[in-house]
Amino acid sequence: VLGLLVWALIADTTYYLHAAYGWVMFVAIFFWIMTVIFLVIYLLQLHLKFHVVPWSLVLAIFNATATILYVTAFVTCSAAVKPTSWRQWDYNRRAAASFFACVVMVAYGASTFFSFCAWRGLGSNAATSQVTNHA
What we know:
mainly alpha
């Protein structure tokens, strides 16, 4: 939803007049579509049918890539916001898009951490951490 806000807010401005927003639009739309595809794969439990694909590693790589590219998109979007714009509504929408790009970047960063932990198997639940082997 937050990624959708980023590209919807930018698409509602005159982004085509500024080359920097083309990159932000590409990153926002590409990763929004890919996230929706991964969501559908997990909702339909298609990841259980393809045992060959290491899904936890795929998600870790995807989230890390999304985080890195969203950092560049956030910096680009924030640097391109001009408070002296002749269209005040463009400024407000671009500033909001910068904020939501930062929130999406943090969300992908957190998702990268959790997917990395799932891939490495660093987590355990309370039941497995209490079991000791006395044999």
